[in-house]
Amino acid sequence: MPAELVFVTGGARSGKSAFAEARAHALGGAGVTYLATAQAFDDEMRDRIGRHRADRPAAWDTLEEPLDVAGALRAARHPVVLLDCLSLWVSNLMLADHPDDAILRRVDDLLAENTRTLIVVTNEVGLGIVPDNALARRYRDVLGWANQRAARASTEAYLLASGLPLRLK
Amino acid sequence: MPAELVFVTGGARSGKSAFAEARAHALGGAGVTYLATAQAFDDEMRDRIGRHRADRPAAWDTLEEPLDVAGALRAARHPVVLLDCLSLWVSNLMLADHPDDAILRRVDDLLAENTRTLIVVTNEVGLGIVPDNALARRYRDVLGWANQRAARASTEAYLLASGLPLRLK
Amino acid sequence: MPAELVFVTGGARSGKSAFAEARAHALGGAGVTYLATAQAFDDEMRDRIGRHRADRPAAWDTLEEPLDVAGALRAARHPVVLLDCLSLWVSNLMLADHPDDAILRRVDDLLAENTRTLIVVTNEVGLGIVPDNALARRYRDVLGWANQRAARASTEAYLLASGLPLRLK
């Protein structure tokens, strides 16, 4: 039986993380590993990470891994894992000079290997004007493809807007 | 009993205002106060405001208030008020140097005080690439939080796309 | 009886074209004319066009027309036409110095004249921060209005996110 995969997408500040945390709590109670992909390069980012951490249940494990997310997933102590977020993982891999096909293969491998109940948070970034710079356009493409793969593999999927979920699947 | 709150969000040119006006007309007929937060700084903005006004029923009252929206709401003559829009109000407060928490407190206060049937129009702005400039990122955050508060307090909520509504709540 | 019109919108890399192609195949089988509006100005664009073409059934006709889309539609050999995409057509007309009202009239005329089963692919571009440059703001406006017209005339409509469809109509 394939593992349960909950896919949660939406824009910035759309309430994705809060929704995903509520779903993780419903599925795993206190037995949830939070797998963070964020890297704090500056104060703005450090603030965002700190704010998010303070909002999570104290009993949850936290793993921080910007690149080897599949390895961190295998190392997780709990049967329910909340990956927050796929979009930053893709961004981290791009910044570490991984080519597009290697990034998408990593996403495929993670989805294929996974045996846990996995909640995946990600971002929709393709609903604005075409960005001026080529790196942003490449990120839109690669993340869009990665999102499609995760959404296709999901057993339930949601689009968040203003904190409210639309059921995609 | 809490007042009725209709939340209407969507992108630019997604038909939010037309949908909100139709909803206001259905709820209040000719007895609607239109509460505009737009300020005409330039010709482009003046054109947009003029076009919108020409589309509204002539019987409706119009109040224009960029900052003290709660005060304007208390002064409205009709039991149905259409606030167009929350996103510009937040933008006006930011440009007038109000800090984030003060802006969100104003939104909370307006939602808590309101005794009318209120239709709130707002924008989703978080579904593109992360903006280059810090002010735009801050606006995305604050507006996202404001939208979540209004959507949570709403009794019905819609996301517009290409002029068509998706029911959020 | 008005012709069947399937409206497919979404962000970049949201799976719009694949969804529209599947819908075209279901409606027309091998008897589909693919009407492409893309113009290859540079290598990036040529790559995108080539990738898309390789994904389509070999039996389909392809017409390429950046500007006179109504003429190409009349010339199509099959009763089912997939227009990919409205958003690039609007962009091409703007770059060829057509004024806004002339562009929207062309869209209206195409919708009014059409007697085929038409699948229209387009982009939602209004869900990010207001763009800095005036041309991008104008494009958001004109495309938003064009999308509303096509969505209003449609007999079915979908918003794609991460490859999954939300039914708009």
Give a short overview.
Chain A is 46% helix and 21% strand. Chain A is built from 6 helices and 7 strands, in the order E-H-E-H-E-H-E-H-H-E-H-E-E.
Description:
The structure is a homotrimer of 169-residue chains. Chain A has a single domain, classed as Rossmann fold, CATH 3.40.50. Helices cover 46% and strands 21% of the residues of chain A. The first copy, chain A, is built from six helices and seven strands, in the order E-H-E-H-E-H-E-H-H-E-H-E-E. In chain A, strand 2, helix 2 (43-55) and strand 3 (61-64) form a beta-alpha-beta unit. In chain A, helix 5 (100-113) runs parallel beside helix 6. Chain A is globular, with a radius of gyration of 15 Å. The mean pLDDT of chain A is 94. The interface between A and B is medium-sized, with 22 and 28 residues.
Low-confidence residue ranges of chain A: none
Helix content of chain A: 40-55%
| Distance between the first and last residues' Cα of chain A | 18 Å
Tally of DSSP β-strands of chain A: 7
* Oligomeric description of these chains: homotrimer
Biggest sheet of chain A: strands side by side, in what order? 3-2-4-5-1-6-7
Strand-and-helix sequence of chain A, N→C?
A: EHEHEHEHHEHEE
Q: Strand share of the residues of chain A?
A: 15-25%
Radius of gyration of chain A: 15 Å
Q: By helix and strand content of chain A, what is the structural category?
A: alpha/beta
CATH architecture of chain A: 3-Layer(aba) Sandwich
**Which homologous superfamily in CATH is the superfamily of chain A?**
P-loop containing nucleotide triphosphate hydrolases
How many separate structural domains of chain A?
Answer: 1
Active site (chains A, B, C): 52
Family (chains A, B, C): Belongs to the CobU/CobP family.
Keywords (chains A, B, C): ATP-binding, Cobalamin biosynthesis, GTP-binding, Kinase, Nucleotide-binding, Nucleotidyltransferase, Transferase
Pathway (chains A, B, C): Cofactor biosynthesis; adenosylcobalamin biosynthesis; adenosylcobalamin from cob(II)yrinate a,c-diamide: step 6/7; Cofactor biosynthesis; adenosylcobalamin biosynthesis; adenosylcobalamin from cob(II)yrinate a,c-diamide: step 5/7
